[in-house]
Amino acid sequence: MTIRVDAHQHFWDLNRTEFEYGWLGAEGNEAINRSFMPSDLVSRMSQVGIDKTVFVQTQHDIRENTWALELANENPFIAGVVGWVDLASDVCEEQLAQFADDPKFVGIRHITQDEPDVDFIVRDEIITGLKVLEKHNIPFDLLFYVQHVHHAKTVASLLPNLPLVI
User: How many angstroms separate the CA atoms of 37 and 68, rounded?
Assistant: First the structure.
């Protein structure tokens, strides 16, 4: 049997005040400016033949990883979680260690497009953090606007053993 996976899904709970969901209020997002939880998705998945999904982070907040993994472990159709760690921090590896033993923790993403520095992803301290991911074979999701795309080649060249998702 073929398993069909939606590899990029967000969930958000507007009652969780520790998270910032300002992007939901942006023009054009009126239809989604409400909580969206696994219970909202599960019936829609069967309608379109999707069996599993992967929760991808929306926050630069380590607490979202914990919440996402709780949701994943409560909802078997959430196959994995792409979370976030502070790649620029000296505690990047410690942050990763908090989640690495959970089999549903499948990668890291940083919302690079929101960084004011177009060269953010190739700054020395970020490359150091990405080397931590490479060391532990943790995939990194590259999230870029067109002005950042040329950095994908740089990251791939500097970190040839880092699994990258584009």
Answer: 11
Q: Which of 10, 138, 5 is nearest to 79 (CA)?
A: 5
Domain residue spans of the chain: 1-84, 96-166
Cβ atoms of 65 and 99 closer than 8 Å = yes
The rounded distance, in Å, linking the Cα atoms of 81 and 148 is: 24
C-alpha to C-alpha distance for 146 and 143, rounded to whole angstroms: 10
Structure letter (DSSP) for residue 137: T
- Rounded distance between C-alpha atoms, residue 30 and residue 11, angstroms: 16
Q: What is the pTM of this model?
A: 0.94
Task: Report residue 163 as tokens.
Answer: 């699994």
- Tens-level pLDDT at each residue, the chain (166 residues): 799 999 999 999 999 989 988 889 899 999 999 999 999 999 899 999 999 999 999 999 999 999 999 999 999 999 999 999 999 999 999 999 999 999 999 999 999 988 999 999 999 999 999 999 999 999 999 998 898 899 999 999 999 999 999 8
